[in-house]
Amino acid sequence: DSILYSYGLLQKENVLYANIVKYNLNTNTIIWDKNYKKGKRLNQMWDFQKTHDGNYIFIMYHKDADAGSASNSGYQITTIDSNGNILDTFNYDDPSVDKQRILSSKEGAIYFTTENNLLAPIIPSDGRINKLSKNMDTILWSLELPSNAFTNGNRYKIYDYIQANNGDILACGTVWHMPGGPLVAGPNATWNGFVARVSQQGELKWSRIYRLANDNPQLPNDEYGNFRAGQLDKIIETEDGNFVLGGTAYYSSLQHAGLLFG
Prior knowledge:
The protein is mainly β. 5% of the residues lie in helices and 51% in strands.
C-alpha cells in the first residue's frame, strides 16, 4: 500500500494538539488520526521522520500557558509505532523557541539541538548538538558549536540534519556572527548560513560560515554592512560525497529600512 503521513496542529476548544494523520493513498482513506499532548495550552510538532527500525519519531514544543511563570514550557521527543501508539518519550527544558530538528540515525541514536548544555545546565551556551541513546534514556554527549562572546558572538539555529554515507552527522542552519566581536562588528553583524560536520563520537570535524556579499548600490557597505543576511535550510549528500545546500538570502532590518527610506 502507498502510505502518507501528515502532521500539524489541531485546535480543540482552547488547546492546540500535535496531530498526525495516516492515509492509504490507494483507497483514499484515513487509516488513523491521532492527537498528542503534554502541555495544557500548546503542543507544537516541528519534525517527524521514520526511524531505523520502522517506527516514527517527532519532536514537540509544549507549554501550559501563553506567557509568564505558569507557561511551564519544554520539549518532548516521542517515538510511536505505525499504529500511532507511543513507545517512548524523552523530555527536556531549553530556552529556545525556534523550530527544532532531530535526526534518527542509522544506528538508532537520536541527534537534536539545544541552546544550553543539558549535561551541565549552569553553563550557558549558544548552540549545541546532542546525541541521545537508542533507548532514549541517556544523553551520550553534548557538543558546543564554535562561539566566543568577545571575538564573534556566534549563536546558532539548526534547520536540517543528515547522516553522511560514512556515518558523520552534518547540520546546517543560521548563525548570528559578529566579526571581530560586538565592539567592532557594527553593521557587519548578521545572520549567516553555516554547516558543521561532527563524528558519531562528538568530535567537531569542521564548521563553516557562508556569507553573501552586500553589493546593492543603495546600501553603502560602511553604513549597511558588507553582507546580507541568510540561512541554510536543507542539505543533501551527492553520490560522490559532496553536498548540495538550499537556503534563503534576505536583507537585515537595517538594510531593509535603508531600501525603504534611504
